[in-house]
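ok, trying the design again with the full structure, not the truncated one.
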């Protein structure tokens, strides 16, 4: 069976796996973004605090993703739980680092001006600092998403959702008629989804970043 014939006969299952893959990555990115920005906001004013936040989240990436999922299985079981936990933790570093860099890069004169017109600390953060720091934060989100698209495939090891199941089934049946087709379908599917995600982020940036800041 050719690759195109395989796609034609398995397109329903592949679409289901692709939807589950996108859903898992998207939900974990939402959680990682909220946590990462909060960590950045809490730590960016302190030199040691920012260093601790970046070092701690960077340490997570030194753990092989397969090992991390394997270590989580005895704690949270198989399926969605180890997938969500692993992807969220692995997505933190680019967001935390870029949040800190972006917030520290805001012109102090603008913050002083906001203070001068009577803005509270929360108002300055929400209306001045975070909007100006949004471009690097969005870049961190884009990088984290691309990382998680690939790492999510490993979640199939713990019976997680997504296109990784197609890849693992193909690897497990190497030598059979459709093994290569399964691995290729899963891999290309992840690449296509990653490109679509990145295109969506480019569009989001054009919609949310003023032209003057982009320039």
């Amino acid at each position: 069976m050719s690759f195109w014939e395989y796609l034609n006969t398995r397109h329903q299952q592949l679409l289901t796996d692709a939807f589950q893959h996108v859903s898992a990555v998207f939900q974990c990115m939402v959680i990682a973004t909220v946590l990462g920005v909060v960590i950045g906001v809490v730590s960016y004013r302190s030199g040691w605090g920012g260093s601790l936040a970046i070092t701690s989240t960077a340490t997570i990436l030194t753990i092989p993703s397969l090992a991390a999922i394997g270590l989580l299985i005895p704690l949270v079981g198989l399926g969605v739980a180890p997938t969500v936990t692993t992807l969220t933790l692995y997505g933190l570093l680019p967001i935390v680092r870029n949040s800190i860099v972006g917030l520290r890069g805001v012109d102090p004169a603008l913050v002083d001006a906001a203070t001068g017109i009577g803005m509270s600390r929360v108002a300055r953060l929400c209306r001045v600092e975070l909007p100006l720091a949004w471009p690097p934060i969005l870049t961190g989100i884009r990088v984290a998403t691309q990382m998680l698209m690939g790492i999510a495939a490993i979640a199939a090891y713990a019976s997680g959702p997504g296109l990784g199941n197609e890849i693992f089934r193909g690897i497990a049946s190497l030598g059979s008629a459709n093994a290569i087709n399964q691995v290729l379908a899963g891999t290309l599917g992840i690449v296509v989804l990653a490109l679509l995600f990145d295109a969506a982020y480019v569009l989001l940036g054009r919609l949310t970043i003023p032209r003057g800041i982009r320039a």
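Keeping the full-length input from now on. DSSP finds ten helices and no strands in the chain.
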